[in-house]
Structure formats: structure tokens, C-alpha cells
Fold each of these.
Amino acid sequence: MSKIKVSIVTVVYNTVSNIEKTILSVINQTYPQIEYIIIDGGSTDGTVDIIKKYEDRITYWISERDNGIYDAMNKGIKKATGEWINFMNAGDTFYTTNIIEELINKDIFDNSEGGIIYGNREVDNNGIIKKQLSKLDTIKYSMEIFHQSSFIYTSLHKKYLFDTSYKIAGDYDFFYKMINKKVQFVKIDTNICMFLDGGISCNNIIQLKEVLRVISNNNSNKIYATYFSILCIFRKYSISILLQQYFPYLHKTIRNIYLKLK
């Protein structure tokens, strides 16, 4: 068995109804070299009692106020001592109990040192399950790589923490920066996790505003920034479908420009 240590971080705040299933999905992983870190934002709803119930299986946990989800995630990064780190936040779960062992046995981690491994996820929207594929080729204008289904080389993440000015799109900003820095991304066509839909991250208006800020901040060429922003809006609100139907020439022109820039 490999000696690679994997750090799993769970960030939680007042999520008593969902935290236990997340904890169980981590501590029941068949791979033994897991460091489990829980960062609680000072919950008052009984979440801490659930954490205490399993604290003998948790490497480190703390309950204190923070300055938002990305501040809490940064706390987890700073505490992590594993070679790789994953964020499985409250309500989300690993897809199977042996997913990490499966990746270890396939030498995925050994062959991706220094970079980012990313896979797919399934989304649970009130009991309706939908598979969601991670896509690197659309990252310039769409947030389609997810922290729950990614493993990031820990030393890389310690060097580049999340920008805490974001409420939703801090992970998108991080992945965008890593693309610009030409960090190695390794795709695995495997479901890594089950994502529980809901919460602030699913507020389309807030999300769109932050995604557009990420695009603007990470493209020094304002022509590219404007172009990717337009693509983002088209994708988010399905405007491209309306263009294709009612303004096919404009739709074709925009698509051709994008294909040339890829």
C-alpha cells in the first residue's frame, strides 16, 4: 500500500442535518493514510456535538468564527500535512468508500506530483441526481472544475491560498490562476463525489458577478476579458441558444472567434 498521505478538509457552519454523512464518507474510506481536518465556523445548532462524536477519527478540528468559507478553507490548508489535499465540505460526500484507494492503486497521485487532479461529480438537487462533468477547456469563461472532485498538491495550495474577498468563486479564481501559471492538470474520468445542491454557491446572480470578476482579474488583456465575459453570460443564461435560433450569423461569428482563440 502506498504511503502517500491525503488530507481531507471539511468546512462547516450550522449544518447539523448534513455534517454526519460527510464525516462518515471520509472516515469510512478504505485507504488508511488519510488526515482528516474539520474547520467549523462556530456552529450553535448541534454541529459541534456531531463532530465530537467522531473526534477519535478526526486528526484535527476547531470551532471558531471565521471570515467566510474561503478563510475557513485556508485554515485547513495551513493545517494540512498530507502530500495532497481535497475539500469535502458539509453535505458533500465521496462517491464510494474506496475512491481514494482506487486512485492510489492506479498511481494517479504518483504521476501527477506538483499539480491538480480533477474528476467528475454527481449533483443531488432535492433527490434528483445529475452527473456533472469537469471541463478544463471551458475554464476561461465557465466554472466547471470543482473543489469537491479535485485533489491539489498541498505545497502548491499552501503557496497559493484562496482569495478571501470572494464568497462563492474563490475556488474558480484559484483554478484560473493555476491555468495561467501553467500548472499541470490531470483529468480522471471518474465520479469523485456527490455534491449537495443548494446554499449561497447556487445563487446565480451572486455567482455570475463573482465569476465575471474572476475573469476580469485573471485576464490582463481586456479584449480577452470582455470576450470571455460575454461567453460566460451566454452560457449562464442560455443566450447562445436564442442567438442560434434568431441571429444565426452572429452566433456563428462568435463561435468561430472562440474556436480560433482556443
Amino acid sequence: MITVWWLLLVVPLVGLAGWWLGQRGGERRGGARISKLSATYFRGLNYLLNEQQDKAIEVFLQIAERDKETLETQFTLGTLFRRRGEVDRAIRLHQSVISRPGLSDEQKTRAILALGEDYMRAGLLDRAETLFADLVKLGSAAPQALRHLMSIYQAERDWQQAIDHARRYEQATHEPMGRLIAQFECELAEKARLGGDIAGVRAHLARANAADANSVRAALLEGQIELAEGNDPAAIRAFERAARLDIEFLPEVLSPLL
């Protein structure tokens, strides 16, 4: 069964194939070589569609060797290397692309994004963070870079940075991020509770509710903190709100009240 990421890799290549063949179809020299490359390219696409990664890599390596100027082939190889876990090869390939003279801003941005994704796959989050942060500062591919930065800060449990970048992503794309921001605020509320900072807990929960009025987690946390503080009426109101938002949480709501 063809997975979603596989389609995301193959579909652009099919479109590229038409352009690539059109470009070379107009050339009058080297016709036999061009025909051979065309057949090889579609053989590689066929392997991709059949999820035969090893054979696809072998084919695209042949194309890359014969036609070193085709950047799309380099990007395809880099993605295949990363998917196979050959991150070192992907990193070297994308570093080589970045160092090429004469790249357009779009091509260089794409290569830097790919290199950052290689670093993420390799667990080199500090290097990936530096690349994505630089792209955001330049305004290049900001939405993609911001989304990757959110993932990095989640992995590092840097919730405030995750919140800041979620807000920036929302501004850049107009995609609602309230539910995710509320989750991050709840993480900060939990951290404040462990540190005995009750005022901090309430502040983070207020921001969580402002970001997502339907946050069950925020309601549960509010009920727990108010109950611990001896404020039973406020705790009951918070637990009732959690139950109204999602009846499946009713056992969790009733447990502290019994």
C-alpha cells in the first residue's frame, strides 16, 4: 500500500518528469543519451511507486552521475537516503547542494530545509534549530521552518519557545493553533505546580483557556489545583466543565470528588 509520504515524494517527480523531458526533447544533440536518461528516470519512478527503495536509489544515483546539474534528482536521493536511515549520506548530499554556486534563493532555501530535516532525523536538534531559526529570520520558508522549530522545542520540552513559535506559525499561515498552545500552557502549569507556584499554575491555565476554551486538560488541572487549595466550589465548577466538554473524562472527574 502506498503511504502518504511516498505520494508526496513521487507526485512532484511525475510533474518534473514532463518538464525534464520537454527541456531535453528540444535539444538536437545527444539524442541517444537523452533517450536513455528518460527511460532510466521513469524506471526510477516505477521503483518508487512500487516502494522499492533500494532499486530506486540505484537508478537515481545513475541519473545523478550522468546529469549532475539536475537538482531535483539530488533532492530525491536525499529524501530516499533519509527515509532509509542513511542520514550521513543525506547530510553530505544536501551540504554539497548548498555549496553549489549559482543557486537561486528558492533552491538554496529548499536545500537548507532538507539539511535541517536530516539533522532532526539524526537527533542533532541544535544544528537543525540553528538552520531553521536562520531561515525564519530571513523570512525564507518561514512556515515550514516554524513548524520544524515547534517540533524541536516540543522534543526539548521548551514549552515557552514552542508557544512563541506556534503563535508565529499561526500568524504566518492563519492556521488555528489554539489547541496546541493550550496543551503547551498546561505543560507549563504542571511544571509550576511541581514547583509549588500556585499563582503560576493559575496564570498558565488562564492562558490555556484563552487559547482553547474547550481544553479538557486545562479544566481538569484547574479542578485538581483548586481542590488541593481547599477551594471546593471552584474545583467542582472546573470538574463539571471538564465533564461537559468530554463525558469520557467523567470517571477522572468523579475520582477526586468521592
Amino acid sequence: MDLFSLGGSLMGEVIYPQSKTIMITELVPGMMIDQEIYSEQGMVLVPKGQVVESADRVMELLMQHDVMMIKVRLPHKVETIKEPSELGEKKEESVQEKQINKFIQNFDEQCEKLKTEFQNILLNREVAQEAIEERLQNTLTAFEVDINVIQLMQKVRNMDDATYTHSHNVALTSHLIGRWLNMSEEDLKELTMTALLIDIGKMKVSAEVMNKKHSLTDEEYEEVKKHVVYSFEAIKRFSFLSERVLTGILYHHERMDGSGYPKGLKGEEIPYFSRIIAIADVYNAMTSRRPHRDKMTPFEVIKILETEYPEKLDPSILYLFLNRIGTLFIGQQVLLEDGRKGEIIFVPKNQIYRPMVRLEDEKVLDLAQKANINIRIEEFA
């Protein structure tokens, strides 16, 4: 797909009467570029007169060339749009609302199917390769919509964080990291498959322990740690799963400093898939509700990962993840702890967890400024 489309995303006749200079984080589909944008080598990055189709892709391209401001023309439809009648005609869902609802519906369906497949695997029943690969392909349909996966996953954070729900989210996040690492399609497929299967063994751990609302005892924690071995033992009988899938599952709780389990591996001793999945696993665990605590916002988790995990997780993959994930929250609606609402419009690289927010009254609040240091994002809408 091209970065731009000549009006393909808007219906009806469109004119562009208003020119405006904006931050690239404010780009939205339908805007017309009103200036030529060049690279340092003199190549045209963005031609004047093109209509933006994928704002995320344009923004990513411009950020790579340190272009932060751009002149655009705003679209205006000539025809009037019929409003819902007073007779009760339903207002049609926007494209974005349809995509969000489709994602949630597919998410529910896939989690139910994962539950069934996990149970069959643990009960030593026959599970066809096609069935597991179908789960994988259906999981990856989340990447077929315009809204980025990280924002979509925020829509299901209030669901109970059952094993199969968590596995689904870790698979999506691992796939995204793999794409950022420029992995081949075959590697991406195996990485995502590995992430999808990491926690099957948790279904063998006592439900009482898994759902405990208080801190685990040392004995209970030791029982939970066995889930990686249970998972490995459950899936090693499938000949179509490669060795790196098996080891990726077994060692995804190992840590770079040797503090992980089951073997206390260090650094390069830990398989590459395990190091990627570990980051996806920790991020999703913290941003999801658990029996003993509420979920954290992504920015709270980003701060923890940045300050407490560089020695535990692969730093090269971790910093790639932190640098890339911040921009994916641009456009995200948020609720501040003082009750004000707004939209994230910019995420600074040096303080990813303190973004700029445009409030409902159009004022811009820079959370990285000293005067705003005590203002916290309470919730992602």
C-alpha cells in the first residue's frame, strides 16, 4: 500500500480551502500536503498536493528525517451529510468505531478458541497443526486495520486477564517487536506462535493460587514458576513446532542478569525469541488487571521498564521497544487524574512517559514541564 492516496479515503467531492502548519503528530487521513518535503540529499520525501491515507506511515517517515512540522490543507466536503432523523434513525458508526468493534469481537472469539485449544493440548488430545496455525492467522488479523495494535489492545484491558487473553496480547506485542527488528516472515510466524503458546502450563497451576488477591507465599510462587516447564512438556510432542519455539517457551522468564527461571540463564545464553517475548510479557502483565492489583497505564509501565528493567531485559530490544511504542499512543484519548480529558499529540524521546496532551479546550499541556510534573494520566479512554 502507498503512503498516500489521491482522495481515496474520503467520499464525495472534497475541497481544501484552509492551509495550516501543524506538528506531524497532528496528521490525520484526508489532509492534503501543502509543501514539498525533501531529505538532506534533496530527494522528495512527501510531494505537495498528495492526500494522506496512512498518517502513521507518513509520520514515521518524517520523524526518521527529523521533520517535526508540516504545512497541510484541511479537507472540507462540499455536500451536506444527512443527520439521523427524529424518527429514530440510527447514526452510522464511523470507520474507526467499526474497526474497534470488529477487533473486540474477534478478540473475544479468538480467546475462546485459544481456551479450547489449550485445554485439548493439556489433556493430551489430538490437535491438528492446521488448528494451531489458524489461531495464529486469526490473531494476526488485528494488523489489518488502520488503528495501531497497541491502541486497540487498550480497548480490552478491562477484561479478566485469563491465561488465553494474556497469551493473545503477548503474541500481538511480540509480533510488533519482531517487525521493528525487521525479522523475516518465517521468523515472525514462529515468534508469534511461540508467544501464543507461552502460558498453556498456567492452566495446570492451582486456580486458587492463580486468582489469589494477595501476595503469593514463597511456596505458591514456586508453583507458579513451574508453568514454563508445564508449557514445554505439553507442546514438545508436536513435531511441527521447531526447537526455537520450544526453547522460546521454556525460557521466556529468564532474565539477562541471571535472576530469572527455570535455569537462571544469563545474557546471550537466553534464546533470542525468549528475550523478545519477555519484554512483551512484562509489558502486557503490568498493563492488565490482575487479581492482586489493578492495571497500570502504559506510561506508568514505560517508566518502570526504563528505570527498573535495563539489566533484566535485553537492553537493545528494550530500548527499541520503548522508543517505538511511545509514538503509537499519539492520538490516544486520555483522562487526567484531575478530571480533564485530552488527546496525546506528542511523545518526547527523552521522557516517553510524559507526553504532550491537547485538552478539550484546545490548550496544550506538556507533562514533561516542571510545572506539570505532578499531573498524572489516570486512564486511557
